[in-house]
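Anyone opening a protein record will find just a pair of labelled lines. A complete record is shown below as an example:
=====
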Amino acid sequence: MFLRRIYVICLLLACCIAGFPKDQPVVVNWPENGPTAFRFTLNRINKIGSAAGETNYGLDIAAENLSGKKISSATFNFYLFDKNNVRVGQGYIDLTNVSPAETVKMQIMALAVGTPVTMKVDANHLPPELAGAAPPRQVSITVYSVPSGARLKADGKDVGVTPVAVALGVGSHKLEFDKDGFNPGTYPLVVTQDQVSGGTITYELGASAHDTIELRDGTVLTGDVESVSATVVEVSLGGQIQSFDRNRVKRISLVERGPAN
């Protein structure tokens, strides 16, 4: 048998739990886009028993090689997600010595924990005969900033506000951070071929891009100090000039400004 190991938390069961009838086959094709190289079909699912929130099932499945080539060895990762898009399980399947158009039927046991409703299949290792079948490999990385709430661009495209998870392909990338009141910054990132999903990056934003004015009543203002005299401090706040009695100001922190254009 070419399925030597299966540690999937109910690979095809995820589809059945999501609302598929038990008496109808469930088909999973790989890859999702382009010509199908492998087709996995769940023909029947039988509940065996449950305990402590875990349910055992017996699965009758068939695996069909549609690539037109004999597959020497291939490994696939399976990721299962719940209704909140939280990954609740993962596993992998090894395939060995599968001839073109060959279908292999088998019975396997599966353990379901929680209620997965969606799944994703990624190729982990492919033989040379399947080198062009897989889509470009991407790695999921969670990006943080200090402070959080910075707008993030990856290779010039908006991807959200930190903290945020981004999917990046193998190669060089540029992350750009922007947050009101702070200098923008960039972070060069290289994703390697053997890098796995789940990593994190933390970027500390540069110093404030504006002056800081602390009043004696504890109020802290962020803006541009325009002038200071013996009696008045003028500050540009949101594009508007505001004047403060000099005696109300406790402390002023000035940032270095570039030359005027």
The chain has one helix and 19 strands. Residues 211-253 form a domain with the SH3 type barrels. fold (CATH 2.30.30.100). The longest helix spans residues 13-17.
